[in-house]
Amino acid sequence: MEELIIKKLISLLNQKSSAKLIIILILFAFPTIAQVDYSFSGYIVDLPTYSINNGMLSSLAGINQNQFLNLTRLRLRPEIHLWQNGRINLEYEADILYSKANPFSLLNQTSVNRQTVNLKWQLLNQDNINITHYIDRLYFRQGFDQGNIIIGRQRIAWGVGRVWSPTDLFNPINPANFGKIEKDGVDAASLTYNFGNFTDLNVVYNPQDKFVNSNAGFRLRTNFFQYDFALVGGYFDKRIVAGGDFAGNFFDAGIRGEGIVSMDKENLNNNFLKLVFGMDNQFTSKLYGMIEYQFNGEGALDKLNYDLLGLLEGRIINLSRNYVVVSASYQLTSLFTPTVSNNSNLNDGSGYLNISGVYSLSDNSSLTAGGLIPYGNMFSEYWYYPTSYYLEAEMFF
């Protein structure tokens, strides 16, 4: 029986190159499997959205100013337990998007900048309907007494910021993307070693360009006087990066900050700085507030020099230099919590107001209603974004 299974796996490996990563991981685990156990979870989300696009952009792009979009996402998350502390995780997603939208809606934007193997397939793209499916996580994880090693497409989340995270050098999420839940997967080998006393080291290698221009970095984290501190460094996108972060409490409030310096290895004078500092507080059992500031040294001061292509491609998430977001939420009932936040570009005066309310339908389902309302002068950053009103129905299983 085992020989028959192995022959089938080898046959599949020869047929589909895109499945190689899956098969290699299974073959790696197979010889020593005594008894395989598994678990299964997932969710389905439906996100209908009514957008009012910028009139000038609508005319240039040849799209209607008022549009209806609908994104349905099904995500399946099987987990195979191979042996003690060894497992394979897979997260598969299928998306149906009805849209002929302003590209600045970002509704279904994904970033493949850190992905080496193409595991995304398009089933249909016609009549404003786009159906895709892809593997967003696929990795083997082996734990040991002092840490773990993870190989494959995985989630790597560095940093402590609530809205922005400059030390997250893999795939940070644009905060204006209200349809995004998870960070995009990263094809990498990751080793975490625990030294004890709240101290650990995470080393990550992300192959790129057939291993010619790969990314590699580390995050060393520890704790002093009830504050978490971390140092990060490495080589990303042909640049040398160094920085760190901290998080702790200041009286009843939480405070956090992080920053990096990014330098061109060929010209160390070609560098930029990114900084984030934030505070949040649970004022009462129902009222929560947060403020966060970002300095984005990679951005431009003149709005006519904005890197719009980089934003659309997902390489960057902001165009200018100085930002601040203020947010508050209040639990009106045990089932309903509204949130109001304002994200401002302090340089060009643009921004957006995000108002939403979450209603808990059951232990595993919820309904969210909200609106993202941008403002700003012509060609300012958030002038490009559409006004969007949305509902989000979410059910986990």
Can you tell me about this structure?
- The chain has 397 residues and is mainly β.
- It has two domains: 1-32; 40-396, Porin.
- The protein has helices at residues 2-15, 20-29, 55-61, 308-313, and strands at residues 37-52, 66-83, 86-98, 120-126, 129-144, 147-154, 186-196, 199-206, 215-224, 227-236, 239-250, 253-264, 267-282, 287-296, 322-330, 336-345, 351-362, 365-375, 387-396.
- It has an 18-stranded antiparallel beta barrel.
- The longest helix has 14 residues, at 2-15.
- The two termini are 33 Å apart.
- The model is unreliable at 1-6 and 15-33 (pLDDT under 50).
Set down the secondary structure blueprint.
Elements: H1 2-15, H2 20-29, E1 37-52, H3 55-61, E2 66-83, E3 86-98, E4 120-126, E5 129-144, E6 147-154, E7 186-196, E8 199-206, E9 215-224, E10 227-236, E11 239-250, E12 253-264, E13 267-282, E14 287-296, H4 308-313, E15 322-330, E16 336-345, E17 351-362, E18 365-375, E19 387-396
Antiparallel strand pairs: 1-2, 1-19, 2-3, 3-5, 4-5, 5-6, 6-7, 7-8, 8-9, 9-10, 10-11, 11-12, 12-13, 13-14, 14-15, 15-16, 16-17, 17-18, 18-19
